[in-house]
## 1
Amino acid sequence: MTTTLDSGASLRRPTLNRPTIAVAVLLVVACAAPFQLAPFRVFQLTLVLVYAIALMGLNLLIGYTGQISLGHGAFFAVGAYTAAIMQHHWEMPHLTTLPVALAVTFLLGLGLGIPALRLRGPYLALVTLAIAVFLGPLLKRFSSVTGGSMGLTLSKPAPPAWTGLAEDQWLYFLALAITVVFALLVVGLLRSRVGRALKAVRDNESAAETMGVRLSWYKSLAFAWSAMLAGAAGCVNTWVIGFVSPDSFTSTLSITLLAGIVVGGLGSTWGPLLGGAFTLYVPTLSQDLNQAAPGVLFGLLIIVIMYVAPTGLAGLVGRTRRLVHPLLTRKKK
């Protein structure tokens, strides 16, 4: 009888699955990294997290709703300039700029998402690209507010004395904390009824509408949430860089973000993080070759990855794991 109860208790004992263990290990490594790396490497990792936040939004829009956007660099810029203007003109604390940047870009995304409902595919991509193209000249025109072509130079968040952290380490942990919070929110959203509705819209709009899904409502919300995440990334980027300029937010940024999420893996949990690393490190590592190398290598790697792994780096990792796991299991037997 005792044995039976013990075995029943053991069956009810909670167990950790592999994704949970992988996330826990990754967080431990992420927390230890800034104490083991040089300041410049910590700065690079911080920018990877910034890009990952923006790519979460783009993944939500394209990977889970099926809407194509080439204008997310504009939302990135709006979030960056919202934070910069609040700091430069009103001397607002850094952390107070984040909720304002979220609200501004959410409303902007919602406002642009409603008229975009009539468009899809390349037509929607063209309209969003137009937004990214004209935003730069618009920022230069209002120089009294935005600093014009010269931009705005800002202070960076100073680490509290009680932390004992250097500035680069403090910025990294701020970016890491914000990334984790948004990742949890996105995962929770996708597992909810709303997430299932977004996936239904992506897979078959007619079938989703038949099942009672309000297409216009969910598409508009997805666009707004996606813009909000891009704005959050822009705000954190302003803290990390300490400078904003219209030339930093050209249409190339929008195309780079799109390439990053496609390479990372559309519709995957790890796609934004892998895409952020690809977006930062490929141009950086090839910069030493010559001035043309980053663009050339970036393009060639996109072609190679799309050929080898059509579902992106996240899909390639998953496929490799499924191939290796049976081999390891056989060896143990």
## 2
Amino acid sequence: MKTRRRPYAEQRPQDLGGGVWSVPVPIPGSPLGYTLVYAVESPKGPVLVDAGWNHPEAWQALSGGLATLGIDVSTVRGVVVTHFHPDHAGLAGQVREASGAWIAMHENDAAMVRLMHDFAGDEHTAFQSDMLRRAGADPSEARAASGERPAPPAVPDRELRDGDLVDLPGRKLRAVHTPGHTPGHICLHLEDADRLFTGDHVLPDITPHIGIYPYDREDVDPLGDFLESLERVGELGTLDALPAHEWIFPDVAARAAEIRHHHEEKLDALLALLAGQPEPQTIWEVAAMMTWNKPWDTLPPMLRGMAAGEAAAHLRTLEARGRIRRLPDVELVRFQALDS
């Protein structure tokens, strides 16, 4: 079954067959429009894949949407979260309050959630501002790009690792660790139905944000991890993909290959940009030269900050591959292409 992306107002809960349902849950103020939350049937109560943004309208859409499908939210057995972002994990705590459900996510993202709870709002703002300054943003832009942080999601009760089976009696729902978009992003393979819940890892039309935070980290390579994860998902074969945004589509392997190709082209273009510069470039300067869905000059400060995070992830991958080097500098991070 395949559906096309429509505005949220045109979305409806759907019975997808085989004991799987989808419920569109709005994301207030986001161009994405909504998150597709899935419910998977089991003899001991349904398990949700993701939960949606923590907002009264979203809660009404989730609980009401489940009700139209004949599912009372109080019967939900558990919520398995593909990753900790607020449009996926935000309502998990409220579902737990309503039903006593457990919440599960990968151990790496669980660690991120605990860190968020320990990190006060003013500390977060200062951290972001300093990170942006080291990337090359001027002080006023660094302050404007910091923005407010959503409330952190509920701390999970259960932690998953790659290959673990979710507690879903009578079904086989296996966690596939697919880091990149977040350190603990997981896809979920419904092995008894040849379906893959892809979260944000593989989407049918757009590609997920792959950033690195702080921008100047040298001990991780999120884009490299993402590209490897795409290969791994491709090895699962021509499964039907049930993504968290846009629409359901067939042959996840083919789409994963397209996304890998897109990022390799982007890496080649970035390397050519750097090779053409006579001086080393800051992350902010690199981001301003790259191609985005809107011209850099028209991007609001927060989106510039996200673009810089994505530029930093691409720079880190080129560095890990030995194609560029960073210059030692305490105050600013600069990169330079190496002779090929």
## 3
Amino acid sequence: MYPADAEFGFELLVCRWAETSWPPTGRSGDSVVVARQLGTAERRWDTVVLECDPAGLAARGEFGPNELDSDLLHVVRNAPAEWAWYRDALPHPGYPWRYVRAAVHRAADRGAVETRRDGNRIQLRRTAAYPDWLRRIVVIENKPDLNATAARALSAQLRYDVDTGLADEVWVATETTGERVEPALLEDLPVDVGILAFDTGTAGDGPDGWPAAPGGVDASIEWYPSSVTPVPGERDDDRRGRRLELAERAYGRGWRSYHDTMRPDCRHFELRRFGRALVPYCAAKGRSQTAAECSGSCPKFEPEPPAWRTRGWPVEGGPGTGIRALLRRRREWVRKRSVREPGTDS
């Protein structure tokens, strides 16, 4: 059983599986970036997988590890190779120029462009051309217990994903039942949506459902998806821009960003290995907790003792700081390894 017996734990295992095993249809030459809980104002997805050109992804890394928001993308993508006044160099954004000027300064602070002053005018030039690094976006909805009620609620959302075509491929991830025909195949889901069935039992065969030794999470394809990439049309530029903004958020945040919304500074917060994934664990509850219940309002919450955060014991800044640093380093390590060796395990 997946950690915490809740969708959150299942989601973390799906993300880690995607990081190590994507694509499910076989080996490819693409690099992979995985994020979770990302989307637009209209739609949010559990898991987002970016299939990237390895050389382009490496070039994207030259602009730093943090995401470029829509204003920064407008500046970085259109920055000229030679010095020019920013109003001459950049296309009109559709909003006041003062916001563009602020974005130019933000981009310069990050080293994404260079600026200089010519009298009262701000000139800019690019430090490097922004690469064409994104190839495809794949979204996955995680429903470990995909019963008829859950399928009815999910069907309209999946139909929206198929019709809008913001992603190139749509999947549903569910847990295997061991039946000859997985129940997910019998539910009323859009025919364009693929179905992945995950066997998490092999990952948690130790005490309390935790693995006695590192293991993997196996997934089988129960239904192959159709490509939902729309045919070329008038709204191509708008779609390309929205996809790139989504990809930038995925690049900057990754799927391990749960430490930003949980409380690693609690003395009971731990990271434990479940298969190939590091997932949160609450020593006070004796189980893996969900993101919703791990907060300052939790009755079991106890801040780390001050002694833990001083004098460099057990780690400089305390265990909470160490957990955050570990997850950031692991994200960067996996990203760099993916660029060097697309399709390999990390």
## 4
Amino acid sequence: MIVTVTPNPSLDRTYEVPSLDRGEVVRATGERMDPGGKGVNVSRAVAAAGRRTVAVLPLGGAPGALVAELLAAQGIEVAPVPVAGTTRSNIALAEADGVLTKVNAPGPELGPEERELLLQTVRRQAHGADWIACCGSLPRGLAPSWYADLVARAHVAGVRIALDTSGPALLAALREGPDVVKPNAEELAEAVGRPLATVGDALKAADDLRSLGAGAVLASLGADGQLLVTGAGAWYGGAPVAAVRSNVGAGDASLAGFLIAGGAGPEALASAVAHGAAAVQLPGSVMPTPADLSPAAVTVTADVPLDRPLTDPAP
């Protein structure tokens, strides 16, 4: 069973548009409304695979009620933390050529009682969990050290932690030794304070995060595949993608695939790659089902292509 923690969830509206012309009326050719937030997407992908998951998230106002309703309709157990503020609503504009423009609202500010209730809810749901996946940005009211506190408490309870966040929250949590962290190339570059131009640069940066405390690093490199770096070695994986429809939630689907497959080793990396490749070919933030996966198309190797340039170098 996988528990997900999404401190700043959202109600996501995705519009498919031929192109985005600033200052003009843009007519959408398709639209979707989904419960959003990185941890929420992980739960959605886990549920789509037929596995049990519990989503812990603060919810408030009409958007929060709708998020809970949409998750329940997908067979996801929701452990809501009532908050006085209103759950944020985000908008994504997906162009026909695969370019995505996102407008993310800040979300509510959590008060002291709400912060404590959130931690208590995570602790209560952790019993019997195989993994706790802590994902996304922290809302106003939660200090950068909040994830670090959660990692420490989870380890005391004997539960493994997967962490997908960035900036000061990631750096603060590393000292508590999360079992796996999942940055993308930009977040990886930010964490080590230098640009990444090649897969070898990403590997070195992942090693640096491990030296700071991460047990393993699962790095999403966009069109250039994924990289897994652990104490046992490093592996590189990729899969062909016919056309990118939307990359919203693709990294979250990858993390779900990794955890579903045990959260360790090349087999888990292969599952992560299969889930990520399937997700980018689906509309909006739709999570892939087993029928959407093409595991035979995935390649994983310990011969990491160190000199391969990144298609989108991380500054």
